[in-house]
Design goal:
Elements lengths: L3 H14 L8 H8 L3 H13 L3 E4 L5 E4 L8 H8 L25 H17 L7
Antiparallel strand pairs: 1-2
């Protein structure tokens, strides 16, 4: 499932990438992308630490892409917030969460579906979403 925080991260990246190499103010992104400002600040910091965005402080400051949207995948953005990505079931992302995993007949099928989902997210470049 895509959490609200992951959704906000995607929106932030799209808002900054839409600036096409210019600084975009955090307030502008918050307004255009309907993200509470306090969440935007927290999530954008994580995106900066991950090397996806750069931030510049002060008057005329804002956010700018640090990574080319043509080389940045949706999966990379997702993994900044959720290191294990999106999971269709908890047993696929956390070990020992279910004692039935070793004998579960559904688990291998879920793993296949999860791999397809991860591959799809990895195939989508941010520039394609602009």
């Amino acid at each position: 499932m895509i959490s609200r925080e992951v959704d906000y991260a995607i929106r932030i990246v799209l808002g900054v990438a839409a600036g096409k190499g210019t600084l975009v103010s955090a307030a502008e992104i918050a307004e255009k992308m309907h993200i509470p400002y306090r969440f935007l600040r927290k999530i954008s910091l994580a995106l900066v630490k991950a090397g996806i965005l750069q931030s510049r402080r002060g008057s005329g400051g804002g956010l700018i892409m640090a990574k080319d949207p043509a080389h940045l995948t949706l999966l990379e953005v997702i993994q900044v917030i959720s290191a294990k990505g999106t999971g269709i079931n908890l047993c696929l992302r956390e070990e020992d969460v279910c004692p039935l995993t070793p004998v579960c007949r559904l688990h291998p099928r879920l793993e296949e579906i999860q791999a397809m989902l991860d591959a799809k997210f990895a195939s989508i470049k941010i520039c394609e979403l602009l």
